[in-house]
Amino acid sequence: MKIYRKHNNSIYDPRYVTYFKDFIDAAVIDFVSRGRRGLDFGSGPSPVLATILERDYGFDMDIYDLFFAPNKVFSGKKYHLITSTEVFEHLGDPLEYFKLLAGCLEDDGLLSIMTLFHPLDDQEFLDWYYMRDMSHISFYTSDTMKVISGIAGLDLVFTDNRRYTSFRLKR
Questions:
Q1: Closest by alpha carbon to 105, among 78, 76, 83?
Q2: Fewer CB atoms near the end CB (10 Å): N or C, the chain?
Q3: Is-contact 39 62, C-beta < 8 A?
Q4: Dist CA 139 CA 58 (whole Å)
Q5: Over the stretch 57-103, which tens digit does the pLDDT of each residue have?
Q6: What is the pLDDT of residues 115-142, one digit of tens each?
Q7: The sheet that has 154-159: what strands, in order across it?
Q8: Terminal CA-to-CA distance of the chain, rounded, Å?
């Protein structure tokens, strides 16, 4: 938890807000079919993404974060949108979380994830800054996301093949 307290992420930092708006505009807005009930899973110490989704896009957001908002508000609820940004690289058993979040989606709900995809070249991977963060223990590519989606009962509906991936429940 100490490492997360060092982050200086604020709704008042225009670069940080742009970081999230880029994600929303690329991986969320064009794929949300209806409804505006959402969950930011892994919101961090300051729920900037949830604030932006409420303020600028009209969502009604719940937040959950293991360290900073640990009340499992999502239990027994269904959402039109679930976001999880810079979380899945920290998970030891990400498939279980994909299944958990899939179970929290409305029938036409969207799960949008942000995590940097790893380089395919072995040497680039070994030199990759993202891997050097000791809290990063799971790494993905667009192919990994396709496999996970099939196992978790999701359809992959969008990827930028770099960092953003969005899913819907299989019908």
A1: 78
A2: C
A3: yes
A4: 32
A5: 999 999 999 999 999 999 999 999 999 999 999 999 999 999 999 99
A6: 999 999 999 999 999 988 999 999 999 9
A7: 60-64, 37-41, 79-85, 105-114, 164-169, 154-159
A8: 38
Total Cβ atoms within 10 A of residue 69: 18
Residue-level pLDDT at 34 = 84
Residue count of the chain? 171
Query: Alpha-carbon distance 124 to 126, whole Å?
Result: 5
pLDDT score of 78: 97
Cβ–Cβ < 8 Å for 53, 59? yes
Rounded to two decimals, what is the model's pTM? 0.93
**Could you tell me the two tokens for 52?**
């932006």
Instruction: Give, for 138, the enclosing helix (H) or strand (E).
Output: none
Instruction: Assess whether pLDDT exceeds 70 at residue 8.
Output: no
- How many other CB atoms sit within 10 Å of the CB of residue 118? 18
Among 125, 83, 87, 127, residue whose Cα is nearest residue 104: 83
Task: Give every CB contact of residue 43 below 8 A, 6+ residues apart in sequence.
Answer: 49, 50, 63, 64, 65, 68, 69
